[in-house]
Structure formats: structure tokens, C-alpha cells
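Thread: quick sanity check before group meeting

JM: Hey all, I'm pulling together slides for Thursday and realized we never actually wrote out the predicted structure for the chain we discussed last week. Dropping the sequence here so it's in one place. If anyone has concerns about the input, flag it before I start.
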Amino acid sequence: MEIKTTKLPENENLIVWEDRFAIGIPVIDGEHKRLVELCNKLYKAIMSSKSSGRKDAVRVALKECADYVRTHFSNEEKLMQVCAYKNFEVHKRTHAEFTKKVLEKCQNFENETFASSLEFVKFLYDWILSHIAHTDTLYVGDLKAYLSKR
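JM (edit): ok, ran it. Output follows.
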């Protein structure tokens, strides 16, 4: 997917939450919605920085995104462990790789250009949607089965 900045004004969302993204676990769906909101906030900050030249809002949005990702992944991993999800280690590794990339972006923020920031938000867009729409659905059956026995 290519993000065309000429077609997306600063105040428009990059990702629009749709019910089809829901995995059926309310707490996780709520956290996924928050991740989408944070990606949109980062996108808007990046778009705003293009005209203003100021990166303060981008820095804040990126940090908020990084902090929330760690919280969400921790919560999700606890649920996977509780229900003995068989591919837990693989899923956890995926989370660790993503977190590493986000943290590297935070550490190297001062070297970011508008183009590299936009490329990163495209990465977030792709990763969030593919992770929610596919990867996270793989543990839902195990978690629902566990919850139904309680």
C-alpha cells in the first residue's frame, strides 16, 4: 500500500476502525482500537510537521505509541499464557520484533525526515492491521475455550 499525502489531509485518519477488525475479546478489541487511535495520532502529527517543521507532536505521539504497544503486548501475552496458546513463543517473538523496531525509531527520532516518518507510519498501518486481522485471531479460539470453562 502506498500512502499518498496529497490525498490525505492532516486532519483525516489513516486507519478507520471497522467491526471486522474485532476478534471478539472485548478487552483486546478495546486495546486494538486504542492502537489504531495512536497510529492515527502519529500520522496526523507527521502530516502537521510537514507544514510547520515542528516535530514535538510527532515525538510525543511516537512515545505514546511505544508505551502503549508494550502495555498491550504484555496484556495479550498474559491471556495467551493463561489459555496455554500453543504458538505463544512465536507470537511473543513477533511482538518483541515489532517493539524493537518502534523503540529504535524512538531512539533515532532526531534523524527522521518527513519521508522516513511517513514510511514508518505506513509500516505501523500494515503491521497493526495484519496483526489484528490475522495473527491475533489465531489465539482467539484457545482463549474463548478457556474462558468458557471458567
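AS: nice. The chain is about 70% helix and 0% strand. The radius of gyration is 16 Å.
JM: adding both to the slides.
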